[in-house]
Amino acid sequence: MEFRNHPIIEGLRVNEDGTEIYYKDVLLRVFKNDHTRDTPTLKVNFINKAHSVARLVCETWNGLREHSEQRASKIDLLLGNHYSNLEWKEGATNGVGMFKQKLQQSDVETIIELLKGKSSKEIAEMYGVNQSTIYRIKQRNDKENQ
């Protein structure tokens, strides 16, 4: 099977279907990210981060994405991560649709202030998000202030 060098990450070599990925001549172990899905996301760890195999194959073989809102997506979910089965798509990686981030960092700062006088449910309704989103913001803020 043929290998190519990644266009940006020096020392990263990827074969055409992502079954073998080498970083600085060390074979990386591929692991499944989410076992509950029918087609779990395959990832590899290097440079202290988990990287999607599909994204690495797509970048190496099909070229870099045009902008940050594009995601590597399988054309046919059952055919794997071969570069001929991958393309850059707008929005969500699961192909369900385009999801824009509902909250900005400035919103988070305002929400932290609002939590002093309003319930999570009220704030969630104000911003059009799930109540659990507000709860996670509260938890993160509480943890940072301990």
Overview of this protein structure:
The protein is of the alpha+beta class. Helix content is 29%, strand content 23%. It has helices at residues 53-62, 105-114, 120-127, 131-144, and strands spanning 3-5, 12-15, 21-23, 26-27, 31-32, 42-46, 49-52, 70-74, 86-90. The protein has a 4-stranded antiparallel sheet, covered by helices on one side. It has a 3-stranded antiparallel sheet with strand order 5-6-7. Strands 8-9 form a two-stranded antiparallel ribbon. Helix 3 crosses helix 4. 17% of the residues are buried. The model is unreliable at 93-99 (pLDDT under 50).
The count of helical stretches stands at 4
Stretches where pLDDT is under 50 for at least 5 consecutive residues are 93-99
DSSP, total strands: 9
Helicity level: 25-40%
In short:
The protein is of the alpha+beta class. It contains four helices and nine strands, in the order βββββββαββααα. The N and C termini lie far apart (52 Å).
SSE diagram, text form:
Blueprint: E1 3-5, E2 12-15, E3 21-23, E4 26-27, E5 31-32, E6 42-46, E7 49-52, H1 53-62, E8 70-74, E9 86-90, H2 105-114, H3 120-127, H4 131-144
Antiparallel strand pairs: 1-2, 2-3, 3-4, 5-6, 6-7, 8-9
List keywords for this structure.
single chain; 146 residues; alpha+beta; 4 helices; 29% helix; elongated
